[in-house]
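User: Sorry, what's this?
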Amino acid sequence: MIRLYSRQRAEQAIERETPFILETAKKYGVPVSWIKGILLQEMTELNMIDPLADLAVRFYYFRYHLFGRVPKSKGAFLGKNDSSTGWGQVYAFCAIDSLNFAADRGIARYEDFGLPSNRHLDKARPDDRWLIWKRLHGDRHFNIEMCALTLRSCAEERTGKQASPDFSPEEIKQTFTRYNGNVPHISSYAEQAYRFYQNYQEHTVQQL
């Protein structure tokens, strides 16, 4: 399958966004190397199937808004109401969980992202899911922020602790595993993301 980003191209793109990633890491208390490691892992896995999945989501909500109701058709294309999208390959339902997590703990407010502040977002509500998916798909900085918030949420879920540079390799891998899925063991995804994290961590140390 044709990849959309070579490793070199992905690394160059991430490097260009380093100032924003540094700001995001500081704002949400997530190590910079975690964010960069996950972004590199996700971007180097992007292939031609991913734009098709995004197109399917757009078509689903086109029908939703056209007819004013949830489309009844099912299947890999017609029934797709969410997809992992953007550099961090974040699903809308995951971003909604992460935004609610951040709001509940006082990490961030909905209005910080230009979102309605009078209620929790609901991942089962089509309008909320479409609102967040559009932002994830079209706003790179929002996508990176949701990557960071999701990592923080995953860290707490898997370790019971707030994200920290002092995490052990096991704890980092558990966090990365949860970012990509919900299996009890450390996944091969997490092992590769951890290697990318190590490369960024070593580079950061060398710059100090």
Summary: The mean pLDDT is 94. The chain has one domain: 7-207.
